[in-house]
Write a structure and sequence with these properties.
Layout: E1 22-27, H1 31-41, E2 48-54, E3 69-70, H2 73-77, E4 84-87, H3 92-104, E5 108-111, H4 114-131, E6 135-136, H5 147-153, E7 160-166, H6 169-181, H7 185-194, H8 203-206, H9 209-223, E8 233-234, H10 242-250, E9 254-263, E10 268-278, E11 291-298, E12 302-309, H11 313-328, H12 336-339, E13 345-346, E14 350-358, H13 361-367, E15 371-377, E16 382-389, H14 390-395, E17 406-415
Parallel strand pairs: 1-2, 1-4, 2-3, 4-5, 5-6, 8-10, 10-13
Antiparallel strand pairs: 7-9, 7-11, 9-10, 11-12, 14-16, 14-17, 15-16
C-alpha cells in the first residue's frame, strides 16, 4: 500500500451520523472481499455500496473496473463520503493500523481479522469509547454463525456456564476424512489443501491458533474478560497418529479440535484449545467436513447448539454483510458483561484430564501428572490417562510440537484449589 498505515494522521473526531447509504472503503479483495462484493451485488435492498478498494498488488488482473482499486490507504481513510471501513486483509499488523486509524478518524469499522482482534481487542474497545465510532467483527469467529451477536444480545446476563465448540473448519475437515473415510493424517491434510480448506502452510489451523484467537474474542463477549493469547493453552492435531485414532475408535469416540471456555465458580473461568474425545451423544460429534458447531450452556437454558459453515468467501462475506447492515441501523457492541457485571477472572489453576501418547519416559516426566488413572505400554509406544495442571501445559506449550507425543482432552476439568489467576 502506497501510504504507510502506521504513520497515518491519527486525530479523534466525532463519529458521523449514520447516513441513508453506507459508503464503504474496503481493504482487501481476496476470497472474502470478493465474496462480499458479489453478496452486495445480489442484495439490492442493502443500502450499502463499495466506493473504493485498497489493494497491495495493482498489477493483478481483476474482472472489475480498475478505477475501483487503489494502493493508497490514506485516500480511503481521508475520504469524507466513506462512512464505513471494511477491513478484510490477511496481515494482522496492517489490519491493526487500519482499524485504529479509522476509529481515530471517527469512522466505524467492520473487520474479520481474528489474529489482530485477539491481540488488540482491549485497546480497540477503549478507542470505541473514546471516539464514539463502532467496531463490529461477527465474521471473525465462526463465519456465518452469529455467535458474537447472540452472546451480546440473547445471552446478555451472567447465567452463561460454558462455550464449547469446533471453531476451525480446516481441522474439522481433516478429522472427518480420518474418522469417516479411514485416511491417515497426511493424506487428509493433502486433500484439504487441494480443496482450499487448508493453506500450503497449515500450521495456523492445525496447531490450534485459529481456534484460540476466535475463543479469545468469544470470551470477551461471554464473560467480559480479555485474555492475551500467550496466557492461554492451544494444542493441535499435527502429531495425531494411528495409535491415537485406533484408541478413539476402540472407545467408540471421535477426535475433534475443540475450543473450551468454562465457568468454574462465581469468580473464575478457564479456557483452552485441544483435540478432544467426543462421545456420540454430544452435539458436535456429528459436525463434519468444513462446518463449525458451537454449544452454549447456561444455568437455566441448559445447552443450545449453533451450526453452520465457518469459512469461505460467501459464508464469511454474508457475516460481514450482516455487520454492515447492523451499522446502518447504528448497532454497536455494548460489551454488556463488562458494563453491567463484574467480569470473571481467568485462571489456569485447574486440573484437566488428558490422554497422552508418548515413546520416551523423559517426555512423560515433562508433564507433571498429579494422578494417572490408566496406562498402556508396548514396544512402539505408550499412553496414559491422567490429571495435570493447565498451568503445567502452558509452561511447555512451545516445546510440545517438537516432541514425539500426542495430547487429547478427555472432557473433564475441575478447579485446583484457590490459588492466583495463573498459578
Amino acid at each position: 500500500m502506497e501510504t504507510s498505515i502506521a504513520t497515518l494522521n491519527q486525530k479523534s473526531v466525532n463519529t458521523p451520523s449514520v447516513s441513508e447509504t453506507q459508503v464503504i472503503g474496503l481493504f482487501g479483495f481476496g476470497t472474502v472481499g470478493r465474496g462480499l462484493y458479489h453478496v452486495l451485488e445480489q442484495s439490492p435492498t442493502t443500502k450499502a455500496r463499495i466506493k473504493r478498494v485498497c489493494i497491495k498488488n495493482s498489477e493483478k488482473e481483476r474482472d472489475l473496473p480498475q478505477s475501483l482499486f487503489t494502493t493508497d490507504a490514506q485516500s480511503l481513510l481521508a475520504d469524507e463520503e466513506i462512512n464505513l471501513i471494511v477491513e478484510l486483509i490477511d496481515n494482522a499488523t496492517d489490519a491493526y493500523h487500519i482499524v485504529k486509524s479509522a476509529l481515530l478518524a471517527g469512522k466505524s469499522v467492520v473487520s474479520g481479522n481474528k489474529t489482530m482482534l485477539a491481540h488488540h481487542l482491549e485497546e480497540l474497545i477503549a478507542l470505541q469509547q473514546e471516539t464514539g465510532a463502532a467496531l463490529l467483527y461477527d465474521a471473525s469467529a465462526c463465519g456465518s454463525i452469529p455467535v458474537i451477536r447472540n452472546l451480546e444480545e440473547y445471552y446478555d446476563n451472567d447465567l452463561l456456564l460454558s462455550i464449547k465448540g469446533i471453531l476451525n473448519g480446516s481441522t474439522n475437515y481433516i478429522l472427518s476424512r480420518i474418522f469417516t473415510d479411514g485416511q491417515n493424517y497426511s493424506d487428509a491434510l493433502k486433500r484439504a489443501q487441494e480443496l482450499g480448506f487448508a493453506e500450503s502452510n497449515p500450521s495456523f489451523d492445525v496447531e490450534g491458533l485459529d481456534a484460540l484467537y476466535k475463543l479469545i474474542i468469544l470470551t470477551v463477549h461471554g464473560f467480559g474478560t480479555y485474555v492475551h493469547p500467550q496466557q492461554a493453552f492451544n494444542y493441535g492435531i499435527s502429531n495425531l497418529g494411528q495409535p491415537d485414532i485406533r484408541y478413539a475408535r476402540e472407545k467408540g469416540l471421535k477426535l475433534k479440535l475443540v475450543a473450551t471456555l468454562a465457568k468454574l465458580n462465581k469468580e473464575r473461568f478457564t479456557l483452552f484449545v485441544m483435540p478432544t474425545f467426543v462421545k456420540p451423544d454430544e452435539y458436535i460429534y456429528n459436525v463434519e467436513e468444513e462446518y463449525n458447531g458451537v454449544v452454549i450452556e447456561g444455568a437455566f437454558y441448559e445447552k443450545q447448539f449453533m451450526f453452520g459453515k465457518g469459512a469461505g468467501g460467501f459464508p464469511t462475506g454474508s457475516a460481514v454483510l450482516s455487520d454492515i447492515t447492523a451499522r446502518f441501523h447504528d448497532y454497536r457492541y455494548e460489551y454488556k458483561k463488562r458494563s453491567y457485571f463484574s467480569p470473571l477472572a481467568y485462571t489456569t489453576n485447574v486440573l484437566v484430564e488428558v490422554y497422552l501418547r508418548y515413546t520416551s519416559p523423559v517426555d512423560l516426566d515433562l508433564f507433571g501428572f498429579t494422578e494417572i488413572s490408566e496406562k498402556y505400554s508396548s514396544r512402539e509406544y505408550s499412553w496414559v490417562i491422567g490429571k495435570l495442571r493447565l498451568s503445567s501445559l502452558i509452561s511447555i506449550k512451545e516445546l510440545l510440537p517438537k516432541l514425539n507425543v500426542f495430547l487429547a482432552f478427555t472432557g473433564n476439568v475441575e478447579p485446583n484449589g484457590t490459588g492466583g489467576n495463573n498459578e
